[in-house]
Specification:
407 residues; alpha+beta; Molybdenum Cofactor Biosythetic Enzyme, Chain A; Molybdopterin biosynthesis moea protein, domain 2; Molybdopterin biosynthesis moeA protein, domain 3; six-stranded mixed sheet; elongated
Length: 407
């Protein structure tokens, strides 16, 4: 039986980034860039004012000229028409080009307007004006031809802004991995139906579809298959048209756990079955080789918390790798227990818990979880507290490892 780390390495060894595609900039959020981006302009395209105020000559003010004649007013989008000379100033707005001759800008809050001929005079509150103050020089942010974004970076709103600034309306990105989700079990009914005796609603399917979408995949819900070999083969075949197939249930050791056999009949190679993990021990993973790369198949345990834990530990990193990300290992942190915990398990346990901050120190509170079927308590969790396989009492204040849930 593999450890969690061994199983994750086996999963990632079969996961390779999907091919690059071109998509509109507005649809690229959360994707991974598949090309370098260079600027087609200098930015800013001119020396610009960082504040509303007056463009002046610093030495002019330092010599004691605290009242200057106003030549004109320049707003963002306009160009200056006059050169600033000694004893003169131009009223200027944030983002507007700095006129020739001026070498600094005084904030409007540090000035007073004085009526007079033309636009009047500006009186400066202080003679402490330094050369270049409140001016952003041309090409300070980027120069024409400069590489501004690197292939492999995740596209956030910031990157979208940068690409818009350099005129990109289309961008090459790693294609979103497609994911199919299939539930199994004679006991399942749709969420819209009231369960009869012996039945339960299909909660795993919608949960796993949402989880896949939240981490950047394009999911499709195949519904659920009955514990029947023909029904399983039909729906699994449909799922194998996607990059990833997630099957919930049917992978344990029961008489109706038919999923591994059906996958084998369809040519899916078993990479491993069972992981030294609680909850989630029955996890099955395999791959179907093809010319476009391996299709990954995860057989998750049917209990909802087990499914979610296995998704976080194994499926999510695989989706990340298929999406073009390099750093996909689940990130843990350390936190101090706020309540004592009694660990009595022969497998490492990921226990639903609540991560919080006490001052500047992370704390973790194990919840009153009733086992792998208790999805309601999991809804209160924002982390999984990790306890190694042992027979041990963990005291309040002890530091343990924690896996945060979600982004």
């Amino acid at each position: 039986m593999l450890s969690v780390d061994e199983a994750l390495r086996a999963v990632l060894s079969r996961a390779t980034a999907r091919p690059a595609v071109v998509c509109p900039l507005a649809e690229s959020l959360g994707r991974v860039l598949a090309e370098d981006i260079a600027s087609d302009i200098d930015s800013p395209p001119h020396d610009k004012s960082l504040v509303d105020g007056y463009a002046v000559i610093a030495v002019d003010v330092a010599d004691g000229s605290t009242e200057l004649q106003i030549l004109e007013e320049v707003t963002a989008g306009e160009l200056p028409t006059q050169i600033v000379t000694r004893g003169k100033a131009t009223r200027i707005m944030t983002g507007a080009p700095v006129p020739s001759g001026a070498d600094s800008v005084v904030m409007v809050e540090q000035t007073q307007h004085v009526a007079g001929s033309g636009l009047g005079l500006v009186r400066l509150a202080s003679s402490k004006v330094t050369h270049g103050q409140n001016i952003m020089r041309r090409a300070t942010s980027m120069t024409k031809g400069q590489r501004v974004l690197h292939s492999g970076c995740e596209i956030r709103p910031i990157e979208i802004g940068v690409m818009a600034e350099v005129g990109r309306t289309q961008v090459r990105v790693v294609r979103q991995p497609s994911v199919a989700v299939l539930g199994t079990g004679n006991e399942l009914v749709p969420a819209s139906q009231t369960p009869a005796a012996g039945q339960i609603r299909n909660s795993n399917g919608p949960m796993l579809v949402a989880a896949a979408e939240a981490w950047g995949a394009a999911p499709v819900d195949l519904g659920f298959a009955r514990d029947d070999r023909a029904d399983l083969r039909r729906l699994i075949s449909a799922g194998l048209e996607r990059d990833v197939l997630i099957i919930s249930g049917g992978v344990s050791a029961g008489v109706l756990d038919l999923v591994p056999g059906a996958l084998n009949e369809l040519g899916v190679e078993q990479v491993f079955h069972k992981v030294n993990l609680k909850p989630g021990k029955p996890l099955w993973f395999g791959a179907l080789s093809g010319p476009a790369g391996d299709k990954l198949v995860f057989g998750l345990p049917g209990n909802p918390v087990s499914s979610l834990v296995c998704f976080e530990l194994f499926v999510r990193p695989a989706i990340g790798r298929l999406s073009g990300r390099s750093d996909v290992t689940p990130r843990t942190t350390k936190a101090r227990l706020t309540a004592a915990f009694s660990q009595r398990a022969d497998r490492p346990t990921y226990f639903p818990a609540r991560l919080a901050m006490l001052g500047d120190e992370p704390t973790i509170e194990p919840l009153a979880w009733q086992g792998s079927g208790d999805l309601r308590t999991l809804a209160e969790a924002n982390a999984l507290a990790y306890f190694p396989a042992c027979q041990q009492e963990f005291a309040v204040g002890e530091t343990i490892c924690v896996l945060p849930l979600g982004r």
